[in-house]
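> call design_seq(struct)
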């Protein structure tokens, strides 16, 4: 009996010691996990701050490369976005390594499954590739007014994935770069001057020659219409019911809408026999010339010893 009791006591002691070792190992593992989680959170915080800092640094470097001229806002936004995403990817890899995830094995699996990943992300990757092509060919820049994919607006941002527009009625339109690059892009801000074609249809019974002379006089008197090349009034179509006249006027790009509206209204009133026309648009004030910036001395000039 004593031998059996001794054997039972020994087994109980062994079991308790084993349970105590498991408990200590659990405590140690939990402590290590807590430390790794704290470090991972710190790495994520530093990564978030470093991504913003890298983006701002790239923007400042691009602005410095342009010297005293205006910086390329499109290139600044694209390069800043690329730098931010690159830093964030590096930070995520560092967090995974801190948590004990074997990133080499993950990269190996991704490399083996590159075809499947490429097919799954073909839309996203095509947007990135289209963004790079838009940056290289520069069909538009930030601040230009463009027509693309049935939308007209001012370009506010060109990112790695999307192009952001603001419409004339103040709506935000986000277009994937792949759709923008694959569509017809009309940049109405590329040239500083544009031709306004104002079409007026009148009855055959009207005095066509007199109306053409009145329209030419109205275009010549408009201070927003350029004198060279001079405005022209042409008969562009004729049918059994009406005659179509087109007033062609060259203007500055920012005056396109104002001149077109004035000529169409004047043409309608003159065709109806009105004796008094609305006042002409006010001439646009010329911007004051910006003061010339003093050129920064070159390195050779700085190192030159004065006699």
């Amino acid at each position: 009996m004593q031998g059996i009791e001794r054997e039972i006591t020994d087994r109980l002691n062994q079991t308790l010691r084993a349970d105590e070792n498991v408990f200590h190992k659990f405590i140690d593992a939990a402590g290590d996990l807590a430390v790794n989680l704290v470090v991972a959170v710190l790495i994520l915080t530093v990564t978030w701050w470093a991504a913003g800092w890298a983006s701002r640094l790239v923007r400042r470097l691009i602005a410095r490369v342009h010297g005293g001229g205006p910086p390329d806002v499109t290139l600044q936004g694209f390069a800043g976005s690329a730098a931010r995403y690159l830093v964030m990817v590096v930070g995520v890899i560092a967090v995974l390594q801190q948590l004990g995830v074997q990133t080499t094995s993950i990269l190996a699996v991704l490399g083996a499954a590159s075809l499947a990943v490429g097919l799954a992300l073909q839309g996203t990757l095509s947007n990135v590739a289209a963004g790079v092509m838009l940056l290289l060919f520069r069909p538009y820049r930030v601040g230009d007014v463009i027509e693309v994919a049935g939308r007209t607006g001012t370009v506010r941002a060109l990112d790695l994935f999307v192009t952001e527009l603001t419409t004339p009625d103040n709506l935000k339109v986000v277009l994937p770069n792949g759709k923008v690059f694959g569509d017809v892009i009309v940049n109405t801000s590329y040239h500083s001057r544009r031709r306004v074609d104002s079409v007026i249809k009148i009855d055959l019974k009207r005095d066509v020659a007199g109306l053409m002379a009145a329209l030419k006089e109205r275009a010549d008197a408009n201070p927003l219409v350029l004198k060279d090349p001079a405005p022209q009034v042409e008969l562009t179509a004729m049918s059994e019911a009406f005659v179509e006249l087109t007033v062609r006027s060259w203007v500055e790009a920012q005056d396109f809408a104002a001149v077109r509206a004035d000529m169409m209204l004047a043409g309608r009133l003159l065709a109806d026999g009105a004796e008094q026309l609305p006042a002409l648009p006010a001439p646009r004030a010329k911007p004051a010339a910006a003061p010339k910036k003093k050129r920064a001395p070159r390195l050779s000039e700085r190192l030159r010893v004065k006699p």
